[in-house]
Each structure stands twice: as structure tokens, then as C-alpha cells.
Design goal:
This protein has 253 residues and is of the alpha/beta class. It has a domain of 94 residues: Nucleotidyltransferase, domain 5 (2-Layer Sandwich). It contains eight helices and 16 strands. The strands form four sheets. The protein has a six-stranded mixed β-sheet, sandwiched between helices. The protein has a six-stranded mixed β-sheet with strand order 14-13-8-9-10-15, sandwiched between helices. A hairpin with a 3-residue loop joins strand 8 and strand 9. The longest helix has 19 residues. The protein starts with a strand and ends in a 22-residue tail after the last strand.
């Protein structure tokens, strides 16, 4: 199956299809509507062929639909019919969860995405659990206020890094992951990386988008109801399952 993976960020919409090497993008921002996103992607990929679409959305997902309107984009995302707009089957997943899925090597992994805000996902024995932590209280504000893109510009890299290190340490202490991946556009500015972490790659969001449609990986990775959903005519979320004692999603896109 040829898959088009779309990663919607607060700054850019980036996308890549199976069989192609170079992703394409266009600016997003507070005026971007879902219809405008689809129109822009279809126009930019008119010379690409694909059978299905994965959409990484910056917010919580339930039954294939955004549960809230995104803070950094325009209106109209809740209830939007992505499958009809693209003319293809569509799976919608939280954007951090899509990059996490592309980074997953098995066991219990914590993924933290440092971009416009902060995204987080835990994958435990193949089951995806997106975490909406950007609005969590930290000090006298929110996590996003101290570790997001605006915090980096306001505080400078060194102070921003100290807050990132503190946040990572607290989450690791609470969640006890086997593996910690730091992704998002600003993760590469961490120097050095917090202890016990590894650097992700934004390109792995596309790998995660491909893996959503991989039947071999699909047998190992079961996204939670809040994490992803299909828009393929059925309108039904994937079933939950109990975590297995072992299970790895290391298939190639």
C-alpha cells in the first residue's frame, strides 16, 4: 500500500509518500483550516500516487476525529471529514504519537516532542497512549510555557535546557520507561542530551504514518481510543487490547 503521511505542526505542514525520498511542506499557522490543509497537500502532491493517508494532528483524537480545536491553527477541525476531502481512506493520530510510533523499538518507550509546544506519548508493549501534558501545571505556569518554542526564544537556550532537563527527569521518575526519545524541531538544540535519552528525528513521523497501515506492525501496535482512529467509512475506533508480555514494532515502512 502506498501511504501519504501528513504531519501538521504549528509552523509547517510536512508530508511524504511511500516511494519518495524528499518531504514537501508549506506554512501552517493560526489561519490554517482543515480544508485549507487538504487543499494545500493535494496541490503539492499532484504528481504523487498514494492509496491511503495518515494525518498527524496536534491535539487529542477520538474515533478518528480531533477532540478539540488546536491552539496554533485555524478553526473547523472538530468533525471534519478527512476521508472525503482526500478521497482516500484516512487514519488520524496525534502528531507526537505518530513520531513516537516511528521511533518505537519495543518495551516501554516515552516520547517527548519539543516543537511549538510539547507533545508526549507512551508506547508500552505496542500500545500507544498519547499524553496531553502541555497544559500540565509546572512551577507557576504550564509545561508549554517553560519548554515550548516561545520559552526557548524568551529564556535562551541554556535556561530552556535546564527546564527541559527537569521536566524529563520528573516524567522518567513517574513513568519508569525503558527508552526515552526526544523529538520535535527543538530537540536537536539540547546539548548535551538529558541522561538516558536518545535523539529522535522528525522524519520518523513519516515512518510512523506508514506503520499505521502496515498489517505486520498493525498486529503488534494497537493505538488507544484517544490516540488514533480510521475514517474509512466504518467510523469505528480500533479495539483496545491488553498489553502483551513482549511485542516489538520494528517493521520497516
Amino acid at each position: 500500500m502506498r501511504v501519504l503521511a501528513v504531519d501538521i505542526g504549528g509552523t509547517n505542514v510536512k508530508f511524504l509518500a511511500s516511494g519518495h525520498d524528499a518531504p514537501r511542506k508549506f506554512p501552517s499557522g493560526r489561519g490554517l483550516t482543515p480544508a485549507g490543509m487538504v487543499e494545500g497537500v493535494k496541490a503539492a502532491t499532484a504528481d504523487w500516487e498514494y492509496d491511503a493517508v495518515s494525518v498527524g494532528f496536534p491535539g487529542p483524537i477520538l474515533c478518528g476525529q480531533p477532540m478539540t480545536e488546536p491552539v496554533n491553527l485555524g478553526p473547523g477541525w472538530m468533525g471534519f471529514d478527512f476521508a472525503t476531502a482526500f478521497g482516500r481512506p484516512v487514519k488520524v493520530i496525534n502528531d507526537a504519537a505518530m513520531q513516537a510510533l516511528g521511533s518505537y523499538r519495543g518495551g516501554k518507550m516515552l516520547f517527548l516532542g519539543f516543537g511549538t509546544g510539547i507533545g508526549a506519548t507512551v508506547i508500552h508493549d505496542g500500545e500507544i497512549e498519547p499524553l496531553e501534558i502541555g497544559r500540565f501545571h509546572y512551577k507557576n505556569r504550564t509545561l508549554e510555557h517553560y519548554v515550548g518554542k516561545q520559552a526557548l526564544a524568551r529564556l535562551g537556550r541554556k535556561k530552556w535546557q535546564r527546564h527541559v532537563e527537569a521536566v524529563v527527569a520528573r516524567l522518567v521518575e513517574a513513568l519508569k520507561p525503558d527508552d526515552v526519545v526526544l523529538g520535535g524541531g527543538n530537540a536537536k538544540k539540547l546539548d548535551p542530551l538529558p541522561p538516558g535519552t536518545r535523539l529522535g528525528n522528525n522524519a520518523l513521523a513519516f515512518v510512523g504514518g506508514y506503520r499505521l497501515w502496515d498489517p505486520e506492525v498493525g498486529g503488534h501496535v494497537t493505538p488507544s481510543l484517544a490516540g488514533t482512529g480510521d475514517q474509512n467509512g466504518a467510523g469505528r475506533p480500533p479495539k483496545r487490547r491488553r498489553p502483551r508480555s513482549s511485542g516489538h514494532a520494528e517493521g520497516q515502512p
